[in-house]
Amino acid sequence: MSTITLHDTHNNDHHDGHDHGHHKETFITKYIFSQDHKMIAKQFLITGIVMAVIAMGLSILFRLQLAWPDKSFPILETFLGKWAEGGRIKPDFYLALVTIHGTIMVFFVLTAGLSGTFSNLLIPLQLGVRDMASPFMNMLSYWLFFVACVIMMASFFIETGPASAGWTVYPPLSAIPKAISGSAMGMTLWLISMVLFVASQLMGGINYISTVLNMRTKGMDLWKMPLTIWAFFLTAILGVLSFPVLVAGVVLLIFDRSFGTSFYLSDIVMGTQVLPNEGGSPILWQHLFWFLGHPEVYIVIMPALGISSEVISVNSRKPIFGYHAMVYSLIGITVLSFIVWGHHMFVTGMNPLLGGVFMITTLIIAVPSAVKTFNYLATLWRGNIRFTPAMLCAIGMVSFFISGGLTGIFLGNASLDINLHDTYFVVAHFHLVMGSAAIFGMLAGVYHWFPKMFGRMMNAKLGYLHFWLTFICAYLVFFPLHFLGLDGVPRRYYAFTEFEFMQKWVTVNVFVTWAAIVAALAQVAFLFNFFYSIFKGKKATQNPWESNTLEWTTPVEHIHGNWPGEIPTVHRWPYDYSKPGAEEDFIPQTVPYSQTMHSNMPHDFEGNAESERIQREWDAANGIVREQH
Amino acid sequence: MSLRKFISNKTIAALAVIVTVFANTSAFAQEAAAGAAATAAKPIDMLPIYKSVAFYTLLFLLVCLFIAIIGKALRVYELTREAQDKPEGINWNTINAVLFILFLIVGLGGVYFEYTVHGSMILPDAASEHGKKIDQMFNITLILTTIVFIGTHIVLFVFSYIYKHSGKRKAYYYPHNNALERIWTIVPALVLTVLVLMGFLTWRSIFYKIEDPNNKPISIEVTSQQFSWTIRYPGADGVVGLKNYKLITGTNGLGMDFNDKNNLDDQMAEEMVIPVNKPVRLILTSKDVLHSFYMPHFRVQLNTVPGMTSYFEFTPTITTADMQAKVNDPAFKFLFLCSKICGSGHYNMQKVVRVVSQAEYDAWIAEQPLIINNDLRKEFNLPLVADPAAGATPAAPADSTATAGKDSSAVAMNKPALKK
User: Fold this and answer.
1) pTM, rounded to two decimals
2) What ipTM does this complex have?
3) A534: helix, coil or strand?
4) Mind telling me which residue stretches traverse the membrane in this protein (chain B) (predicted)?
């Protein structure tokens, strides 16, 4: 392994020198069709932020409708035209808003925005690599993602409106244009956008995996990788194995819609018109969709978990508790997430026998999640916590992960799911565990690695304001929704006016909408902070958080190839914070044990007899008594 | 140098504050004067202003300005401290730590409020046999998760507070403890095993029913379409007849095959009426897209799938009248509704469910019209039944006492059939 790494390093050095000698970067190669992983990370991040703002705006629109179903908002007609005639959103458009909000948030923000940004930024920087395994493919990955975003947004500008069958686009609703107007052209665009998106994810994922496996710097064995990298690596594996299944499903749906096949359609009568399709099953789509769809949830949350592990450890000035357990629990989640998809289908009419099996696998996945939570808590214990904005967000992430994760125990239980399925309880559950937790993980990452990305610091005080407003409002928005679900209020209802028993929840909806509006406005603090700091922020130092990982050994100014000289060699794990005997409360991964004779511990040497002997002799010479194995 | 800078900073800041205050007061004074003049002329109707977007935009900008001023003031304060070589004036670390504790306390209050106030607005106790088991499981899960929820949050925020940064101590190097990790792997695993087993057994008891020959279930077929439900009762033979989607026409909305004798006595109903304590076997089908048959009070939900029939068996245990007394609401109704997104009318697909005594049920079911009528007989080449004129005069009241009146029932049946 090490010989290969050395060889690679050498090659890259050579290549790097070559690059600088003969080739001047233009605006286009630097900022647009960049092949540099740091620039691609920034492209993913900024696109992700733009998409997040759009999706958040859509959510405010439908929250307005839910809170004041009989009020008219003339401004809406100004912007939305026929979709909000008389200032009131139409039912069709309401469903389109819900659908596109979900699609953007899950795929474009929390998958591409999160993995795309931080895998690209950190995999090379934290592993000591000059760039991704295939920079060209990496560039392609971003541009396919960008085109997918554009196509998705384009569907707002066509006559029949965007896809509106829910983000899960269950056929037949999504397959038959007559069933809902969004299933005409809008759905076609949705499907095309999704194919491009998956292609982008696959290119990214293959890059991440090959970079992690083949290009780590000298000394960086798998068990010395930071947890961020473990999380990104396993996320990429999940994506590479599950996204193609979605494409398969999507292609079949395209066939059903455009070429008259019957993969998902059978026995359908629209009004009195009998459709010719026979022999298909709508359940097939659900199996294919959720075979991606469930791993997708972990594709969203695992990077957030990885980022939080790193941020919590750095800012507690303590090693992450149970590093190995953290890795094994990530692996456990990765493997299990492939065999739990059926818990989305307990009441679809799937054979009840399968329901029982999927319930067992689903509840098992709570065990590694619990281990992670307890390890976070143990990491905080007797720490020396610095509340940087990143740390606040990471703690917020843990809080949401607990709150949302626990309601998963209800929904994963097939018997309880009978009455909770497709109600607001589900909405509350996944917005906490997957929405809020993942967004907070992402925000933690942005605050933490902003200095690395832009060479400047974000304003901490605006960060505090942003965190506290968002944290509080997210709970105010999503906590009450559980109780709507427990009252049997189904999700994706345009208005609660038609049912007497739902009317008592309208006041709660008003409250939730106000909380959502405040949360949305709080993001202005973040956006201002982010874009202002890119240009005017305080100049960052090389290692502003006093962190151990390799990315902080690169110069503040970005250079192609990351390190000006030789790539650093790694000697220790990334979590030597506050090690007894050490002078500082952190020891970077590049510091060899020979320089830290005071703080070395027996298990540091992993049974290497020679090193242990040297340490013993040094101890004896300096009169230090250490406990042995 | 730095002192001069500081002085100029301070002066400028002071000037800025004075100017702002002055400008504000004078502006407000002017506004007040103008306002007074206006009120004297005629009272201003503020309502349209409160409704205008510009008002809220300005309000938000004002808030931003306010925050910016606070930010500047803080900055000036910090620079002052820095220039005087004093330690940092505001310990943000402590502030955030305290905020976490406050959040914990207020949050626990909020959770208590939610559990008691919103918690009392949720569905009443289950009105079905299996629903009671589900409720029991729900309560056990709720207690367990609430304990973990509160416990972990107390630990999370209290640790955040206690172990906030201090220059005096060093964090405790504590990379792992295998015993501890084993405990918090095994304990959740055990608890979850118990929950899984309970859930699994409950699930099986719901979907794998052993039929009691003395208490055979009533079959009721429910068919969904955009955006309504059709309820079909099996008639005297207790069997819901065959249907085929290819037979669906304007008059034969369900596509029933009347060559199947079981169809001849099938009845249509506008609401679902079921006898208490008698098992009901729902036969769920869909005509167009996916819908979900959801009966929240009975803890019953199953999707209706085009091309596939699904079944759900349950036993109602409480009549509508008893439930009205129990929840103290004379207008209370059991319902079923659609919970799977199905199109623009998804939010209004409901039918009333009435649970009654066996005697009431028997009386009610006898009154329900047959589905078959002379139009359908013609379509299927079946012998017509007398009085074809009745079909043209739907005004003729359906005689509810007529037991042999197949034709009069058929007359009444024309209405829903024609509506389709």
Assistant:
1) 0.89
2) 0.91
3) helix
4) 53-74, 95-117, 137-162, 183-203
